[in-house]
Amino acid sequence: MRVLEELWYGNIDTADYGLPHDQEYKELYRRLCNVEEKLEATMNDEQKKMFSKYMDVQLELLSLEECQLFKNSFSLGARMMLDVMGEN
């Protein structure tokens, strides 16, 4: 149960395992930032506020999706371990 204790005491940060930092990721992130800068340069203040609200809601939605993915993945891992343990 060592892993559960480490998780309980906050010694395991599940967010550290989420993002790839390879060249493909960096290139896509660079392109995203570039497009966002160009888009915002064409907007007036009201459009910028609306776009900011859109981005906030998009981030909330992504957070909910990531949470569900985490729960589903954890559940799958637990089921796999139970299956392996049951084969003995």
Provide an overview of this structure:
The chain has helices spanning 2-8, 23-41, 45-86. It is mostly helical and 88 residues long.
Give the averaged pLDDT, no decimals: 87
Assess the beta-strand content as a share of residues.
under 5%
**What's the total helix number?**
3
Structural class determined from secondary elements: mainly alpha
Radius of gyration: 20 Å
Terminal Cα span: 20 Å
**What's the total number of strands?**
0
Dominant shape: elongated
Q: List the helices and strands in order.
A: HHH
Which features characterize this protein?
elongated, mainly alpha, 3 helices, 88 residues
What is the gist of this entry?
The protein has helices spanning about 1-10, 25-40, 45-85.
Which SSEs are present, and which pair or pack?
Elements: H1 2-8, H2 23-41, H3 45-86
